[in-house]
Each structure stands twice: as structure tokens, then as C-alpha cells.
Amino acid sequence: MLSGPGFPERRLRRFRRTSALRRLVSETTLTPADLIAPLFVREGIAAPQPIGSLPGVFQFDLDSLEAEVAELVSLGVPAAILFGVPVNKDAVGSGASDPDGIVQVALRRLRDRFGDDIALVADLCLDEYTDHGHCGLLRPDGTVDNDSTLVRYAEAAVAQAAAGVDIVAPSGMMDGQVAAIRSALDGSGFADVAILAYAAKYASALYGPFRDAVDVTIAGGGDRKAYQQDVANVRESLEEIRTDLAEGADMVMVKPAVTYLDVLTRARALTDAPLAAYHVSGEYSMIKAAAANGWIDGDAVALEQLIAIKRAGADAVLTYFAKECAQWLA
Ligand code: PBG
After folding, report:
1. Is the CB of 213 inside a 6 Å radius of any atom of ligand 1?
2. pLDDT, tens digit, for every residue of 257-315?
3. Ligand 1, pocket-test mutation among 53, 121, 127, most atoms within 8 A of CB
4. Fewer Cβ atoms within 10 Å of its own Cβ: the N or the C terminal residue of the chain?
């Protein structure tokens, strides 16, 4: 055996030589069971509509939604999160809590068809349903009013629970939203419905394609910086997570994912509660666009990012790659 000056003392390459050896020492696994598929369901359409800025992602009608969920179930994906695209939007986002609103109708349909074969999650927010595109109710001066918005979130949570949701996922970043929703659910006989809190959610420029998917334009060219977090902060995320857990969150989320891996790692160190990360629309579309240009191997980059998100500490990943990824891993 050669050793001494000029020859390495430790040989770390030995476990990289074959695929079996690499698998043996792999520190992180990615399986279909880690994935939550975001699904858009649109009222008033009869066939799936492609979303230009999210290649391969569709706004579904109820029939095609059911078919998509059947595929996810057969691929072993344990959860889907629904986003509604209503025909009518108004100032208070009525569709979010209407028992006949599109997400409530979809939840009842999926629950009837799939029973407990898939966990049904519903995004809980007003922006898809308001004509001004904000996540809450507006004061006369156009700013978002925290406390009156909580009343609407509570109503939406109860409507989603009555329609059969397993997990509600408040994404509006109002203070006190988890406590308001927990108390409304408990008070209406839905103590078993869980809360996945979008706890550390940043005012990110990576949500652009999503807003196309749900036909949301924020009034007056505005933004969400008065309620979503400043990109520059990480300790603030830990405060958000602590607060949401104290208010009764069952699972907490960091969003976006790849640009915020440091936040995820800090979150993992902070809590042993289930932790999710949202690989958001812009993260997906950048990969698809570069791959379409032949600049990167899109599937390989997607897998690399999803594994990185798990390595950083996530238990579950919300991703538009969910179906494809489950197929790659099959
Ligand atoms: C709000 C919500 C948004 C996303 C998920 N829930 C949009 C926003 O905060 O503006 C973005 C998800 C993505 O970009 O994939 N209901």
C-alpha cells in the first residue's frame, strides 16, 4: 500500500465506485411518499387548459382532476394540494368559503372517489377569489386588514372541512391565522382536520407563473410585501414557525425552497414537527425553460433540487414535478 508524502491518507472515493456502493452510503432518500402534488381546478371549463408559463401543468375540470388524482394514487403519491380558479371573483373572496365553491365541490368529489387513498390538502387563502388579488380583505385605503381577514379564513376552513379535506394550508401570512382556523375547526366538530401552515413564506418573485395559473393580478401593480416576509431575513422565519406551532400548526412549511435552503436547515434544527418545503412555480418553470432550450438536463436538475430540499431538512416537498418525479422513481 502506497502511503506517505504525495499519497492520500484517506480514500473517500471507494464508496463512489459503483451504484450499489453509493446507495449503501446515501444519506438522503427521495421517494414518491415525500411528494405533495399541487393541482389547479377551474370552474366552468370542460377540458384541461394548459398554463403557458408552467409547461406540463394544467388547470383541470372536475373529470380531468379526478383522472390526475387516480394517476397520483397509482404512483404512490400520498397527498395533493388543491387551488381553485373560480368563475366569479369579488371583494371578499366569496368563493373561498361557498359550499358550492370550486374547491369544495372538488374535495367532495375526490373524497367520494378515493376515500382515504390520498390525503387531500386545500390551500386556504383569498387571493384566488378576490377581484383585487390580495390574500385578505382591504381597508378603504387599499391596505390588507389582518383581523377581518381572519374571519374569512375561519369560514373557508370550515367549508373545506365540511367538504372532506384532511389538511388545510393557510398561505395568506396574516398574524393569528393558525389560531383562528384551529378554533373555528374545533368549534365546528372538525378537530381531526390538520393544519399545514405556510409559516415561513417569502415575498418572492418566483410566484409569477402561479399567478397565471390562478388568473391573479394584484390590484394596482401591487405586491405582497406588507404581509409576506422580506427575502433578507432568516431569524424572522424562526419566529413565524414558533408562533404557528404555538397556535396549533401540525406541520410547517418553508416557501420557496431552493433559494431558502438555509431557512429549511434552520427550521429543521428548530422543530421536530413535520416540515414541508414548496418548490414553487418559478423554480419549476426555470428548469423547464432551460431544458427546452437544451441548456440543461431538466429531469436531472429537478431530481437534484428535490434531493437537495430533503437533504436540507424537509420531510415533504410540494412540487409541480410530483407526477413526473414519481414516474422517474418508479
Ligand atoms: C397564495 C399562494 C401563492 C402560492 C401558493 N399559495 C401565491 C402568492 O403568494 O402570491 C404560490 C405557489 C407557487 O408559486 O407555486 N394563495
Report:
1. no
2. 999 999 999 999 999 999 999 999 999 999 999 999 999 999 999 999 999 999 999 99
3. 127
4. N
